[in-house]
């Protein structure tokens, strides 16, 4: 058994910034960070474009950023949350700069600000095309200096501990469900450890691995969302899965390499198989329309021509500036034989970001007491039906700070729940065939991509639901009889996430933002967030 004052699950921008702040606030208290693989292997690491924030008040304003966010969210953003994130964001950006994050500057020492789809002004701070990796580096350097932060790498969290584990019946209607900690698998010893905590923060990232083609790393398996749903917590807006319009098209390669939206912000043009610039047919903002519009436009062009990708044309762009701003993209293209100055880049949409997740309030509280959530695993109300580009890192910083402010006021009033039973693995055996797990994952990813992708129908969702029921039945049977492993638990979590996406998509009898159903092509007059 382990005990800690603050337990942080996840080591991306949300988890590390929270851990750093509570550790500095309470140097005598214990902070434990758990990550299921390497400490730097997070969704944050793969964020290319940058972080949106109003820093140039001569040309930009909070009101402009707020309006851009609300427009992208297609009527489902929480206006109060949007105001919080936009107005508090610049101060949080200053903090990560103080922690050592190096955003690109011009010769005069001013920040180079980028512009991406849906933004009315240049406001994206970036570090070349590896912004997330740079932020992760600065955070890890700073966290490493805190003596009261312990980091457990290669630990896989299995479930939240609540009253359910004390023998009580816990349902969605149970008032005041409490989180006492987690059960976690130490992959070094293969032992399941009971970790008790006063405060638990979920910063577990996204769920892109539910789809066959995704820009997310293999760790993005929706673990936090699935755990909260099993613990009878509230989940919302899971139908809004953002497909990034421009992932590098490489058949059979997963995860897909991301071609950041900033390339189009600097002048890149999307072209179809005939070489035609097609975005003007779909939106007056052309290549800088919001991501849901661009992704559907690309999907339409691909289906019309029967192709598996479209093209991104960067030939007219200044090569020297391209290499300076996008060195990672340039080298990747060069490594597969593409010269961006003379050739098109093949691109196609890929699952990229979950706008829904664990429902939280303005202080990051989940519906479960003593449990907070922030980052991509949470649903704060910022993104609504479609996330504005580069708002995700900003949201993570703002809400991790708010979780910190709230939780440090409460931690001293919480006592450890001592009578928690150990994990019960009685009756389980080692798996005879890993194919039962790997094949379930393939089936899930295939059905989600084919039936619950960019364009949906009532029939496709019905088929997905039936097949998910069967997968759920098979994987639960395996889970009850087989010794737990990260592979088994990840597939189990992804099936739960798939179920939530499909179920909420079925409830939404309209097309809005990232959810487009050809059986319900119009928007409903009644705006609602769908909560399970």
Description:
The chain has 13 helices and 16 strands. By secondary structure, the protein is an alpha/beta fold. The chain folds into three domains: 2-239 and 355-413, 3-Layer(bba) Sandwich (FAD/NAD(P)-binding domain); 245-349, Flavocytochrome C3, Chain A, domain 1; 435-507, Fumarate reductase/succinate dehydrogenase flavoprotein-like, C-terminal domain (Methane Monooxygenase Hydroxylase, Chain G, domain 1). The strands form four sheets. Strands 1, 2, 5, 6, 7, 8 and 15 form a seven-stranded mixed beta sheet that branches. Strand 7 (181-186) and strand 8 form a beta hairpin. It is globular, with a radius of gyration of 22 Å.
Lay out the secondary structure.
Elements lengths: L1 E8 L3 H13 L5 E5 L15 E2 L9 H11 L6 H20 L25 E2 L5 H13 L5 E5 L1 E7 L19 E6 L4 E12 L20 H8 L4 E2 L4 E8 L13 H4 L3 E3 L19 H15 L4 E4 L5 H7 L1 H9 L9 E10 L2 E3 L11 E3 L4 E2 L12 H19 L24 H17 L6 H24 L4 H22 L25
Parallel strand pairs: 1-2, 1-8, 2-5, 8-15, 14-16
Antiparallel strand pairs: 3-4, 6-7, 7-8, 9-14, 10-13, 11-12, 12-13
Helix pairs in contact: 1-4, 1-10, 2-3, 3-10, 5-13, 8-9, 11-12, 11-13, 12-13
